[in-house]
Amino acid sequence: MEIGIGLPTTIPGVEGRQLVEWSRRAERAGFSTLGTIDRVVYPNYEPLIGLAAAAVVTERIRLTTAILILPLRLNATLVAKQAATIQHLSDGRLVLGLAVGVRPDDFEAGGVPFEGRGKRFEEMLEDMQRIWAGEERGYAGAIGPDVSENPPSVIIGGQVDAAFRRAASYGDGWIMGAQPPDALADARPKLEAAFQDAGRDDRPRALALTYFSLDDDPEEQTRRTIGHYYSFIPEYAEVAVADTAKGEDAVKERVRAFEEAGCDELIAFPASSDPEQVDRLAAAVL
Known about the structure:
Blueprint: E1 2-6, H1 16-29, E2 33-36, H2 47-55, E3 62-69, H3 76-89, E4 94-99, H4 104-110, H5 117-132, E5 153-157, H6 161-170, E6 173-176, H7 181-197, E7 205-213, H8 218-229, H9 234-243, E8 245-246, H10 248-260, E9 265-270, H11 276-285
Helix pairs in contact: 1-2, 1-11, 2-3, 3-5, 6-7, 7-10, 8-9, 10-11
């Protein structure tokens, strides 16, 4: 199992220099990817812009949106061009994790309808793939850098059955949100069945994200950041705080459990923006 690390783009007050240093340390340490997650109604960095910053200070590590809420961005053409830009800028390291989103306030703030987002999601995926394949539009023809020979890898998030079908139709695999390892073990057969039903003989990738804290006071730090991030659902915020792997032993156990569950890549997101967390996580699990 590969192990990636999330960028601290959702930690309130994170500074650009911390993001850059975090990215450099993650690459030196040998993590498989740098991840971002997505919200609109929160003081976080925009995921694609955060990954663009990471791309220019790294050379090897993958860049993964885990996930990007695609239907929030009504203009599929623009998203395709943004993704193609990062793909070209990074020499082919972008993994575009996409999902429909579940928070009505994000859509309301963006002036985008919450209803019908699943249908829009599939239409946008189809449009983006045509653009990456080189479909010409307008007098200038191409949209964005040419990635027709190596388009961004796409993975799909979501727990409903449609998510697995979409993964088989449009992507290379599926990503699970912050849930226990046994939830991934339960989902893996659904993912593989969806690929078989779609007539695909390649093995789908199964990814997951989790939270960790190797801070000096992990309980307090987790409540202050991860708890705050999920405070829009107080009951779930408590669950998220409790489920965060706190301390080296808990982190090691979390990694072991996901590997046994059949996870191909686990992306561990931090509770703080201190770049020392990169080194501490690497020492514990790499």
